[in-house]
């Protein structure tokens, strides 16, 4: 697609992109780009706006394996009739230039390969306005809870399936992994006591509606302490000024009540006193 849909005026879209390349097996060999894939994402909604992918034929076809070690890997036959990089360079430039770049380990690998490919055809490389390398972000924020933080490991951790090592599939998986990680981190920062199973004695704020207005109150857990004279007086739902008139009567009732007397009978006497 030649033109990418704008997310919102004044908002830079995020481009998740990925390259598939040859893997040098001896010193002196170079990386050849075999596939480019990208999705443009609205940063405010995290929805995919557009996508583009293409196989790329390297100048040295012999560098591409006849058979791939991966089930969906790229073979020599797959790229034999694909366009050369210079044929798709203009489109790749328009997708990447002036946008926020995002991807997994792109700073050390994909960005370098993009610069090399454009330099080889004598054209200026695209320039990002920002960079989101999910490997660096997750290393700092998410930690090693999911293992080695490779995309395949993260996808397995969240049950997202196997990494296919194809550009468009991988960038979509990258976005889903980030969504899952962000959700976990958000929950941990918002309700840490709940997630750490320390919520039994923590007050929980709830909401209820009265005459169209939201009222907030604090509720304890089911394991609240039993009602006693001390905490019963603290929770009597009357204005502070009226407590003096009834406090002595309530106190006398509580003192005379037997431990086995039901709370319902106690409340009945209290309400009678207030009439």
Tell me the CATH architecture of the domain at 14-194: 2-Layer Sandwich
In the CATH hierarchy, the third-tier topology of the domain at 14-194 is known as Nucleotidyltransferase, domain 5
Helical amount among residues, as a percent range?
25-40%
Number of helices: 10
* Percentage beta strand: 15-25%
Number of strands: 7
| Order of SSEs | EEEHHEHEHHHHEEHHH
Order of strands side by side in the largest beta sheet? 3-2-1-4-5
Gyration radius, in Å: 32 Å
Largest beta-sheet characterization: 5 strands, mixed
Structural commentary:
Helices cover 39% and strands 17% of the residues. The protein has ten helices and seven strands. The strands form two sheets. It has a five-stranded mixed β-sheet, sandwiched between helices. A two-stranded antiparallel ribbon has the order 6-7. Helix 9 runs antiparallel to helix 10. It is globular. 22% of the residues are buried.
Notable features of this structure?
275 residues; alpha/beta; Nucleotidyltransferase, domain 5; five-stranded mixed sheet; two-stranded antiparallel sheet; 7 strands; 39% helix
